[in-house]
Write a structure and sequence with these properties.
With 166 residues, this protein is of the alpha+beta class. The protein has 2 domains: 2-42, no CATH class; 53-165, Ribosomal protein L14/L23 (Ribosomal Protein L14, Beta Barrel), CATH 2.40.150. Helix content is 23%, strand content 29%. The protein is built from 5 helices and 9 strands. The protein has helices spanning 2-17, 24-29, 32-37, 39-42, 156-161; strands at 53-56, 62-70, 82-90, 101-108, 113-114, 120-121, 127-131, 142-146, 162-165. The chain has a 5-stranded mixed barrel. It has a two-stranded antiparallel sheet with strand order 5-6. Strands 8-9 form a two-stranded parallel sheet. Strand 8 (142-146), helix 5 and strand 9 (162-165) form a beta-alpha-beta unit. The longest helix has 16 residues, at 2-17. The radius of gyration is 20 Å and the shape is globular. The protein starts with a helix and ends with a strand. Residues 1-44 have low confidence and may be disordered.
C-alpha cells in the first residue's frame, strides 16, 4: 500500500514540480498542500460539447439538460453561445418535460474566458438558460450570477431577468 501511494504521489509531484527529486516524506510533508490546491487545475476544462450535462438556472421546469449540439457549426460552446439540449431531469409540473429537445444559452462555463481589460472570468459549474427558437427565455427568473458578455451576444433579456451580473 505504501509503495502504491508513493508511486502515485511521485507521479503527481513530478508533473507539478517539473521532475524534481521527490521522496515520500517530502511529498506527504510539505508539497501535499500544493498537490491538493492544484487538483482543479489538473482537470481538463474544455468547451461545452456533445453529451455535456448542464444545470438549468431558470424556472422553466427543467433541472438538468444534456447538450446535443453547439449551434453555428462550432466544436463546442462557450459563454453566451446557443446549444441544442435534451432535458434529462425536470420538475413534475413545469413548462418543460423530460425528454423534450430545447434550445439553451450558456450562462456559466467552467472554462475560463479572457476579458478586454485583461481579467478572466471562470465559474464553478456549467449552467444554461432555456430559450425558444427566437431567443426569448422560457422561464421568468434566472438564478445565480451571469456574465455581462451576454450583452455582446444579444441576450439582453436574460441579463434583465438575472439577479446578479458578474
Amino acid at each position: 500500500m505504501a509503495a502504491g501511494l508513493a508511486s502515485k504521489w511521485s507521479l503527481v509531484g513530478r508533473s507539478l514540480l517539473g521532475g524534481l527529486n521527490n521522496n515520500l516524506s517530502s511529498l506527504l510533508g510539505t508539497s501535499n498542500g500544493i498537490t491538493c490546491s492544484h487538483s482543479l487545475s489538473l482537470q481538463q476544462r474544455t468547451f461545452i460539447q456533445m453529451r455535456t450535462v448542464l444545470k438549468v438556472v431558470d424556472n422553466s421546469g427543467a433541472k438538468k439538460v444534456m447538450c446535443i449540439q453547439a449551434l453555428k457549426g462550432k466544436k463546442g460552446a462557450r459563454l453566451g453561445d446557443t446549444i441544442i439540449a435534451s432535458v434529462k431531469e425536470a420538475h413534475p409540473n413545469g413548462k418543460v418535460k423530460k425528454g423534450k429537445v430545447v434550445y439553451g444559452v450558456v450562462v456559466r462555463a467552467a472554462m475560463q474566458r479572457g476579458r478586454c481589460d485583461g481579467s478572466e472570468v471562470k465559474f464553478d459549474d456549467n449552467a444554461v438558460v432555456l430559450v425558444d427558437k427566437q431567443g426569448q427565455p422560457i422561464g421568468t427568473r434566472v438564478f445565480g450570477p451571469v456574465p455581462h458578455e451576454l450583452r455582446k451576444k444579444k441576450h439582453v433579456k436574460i441579463l434583465t431577468l438575472a439577479g446578479h451580473i458578474a
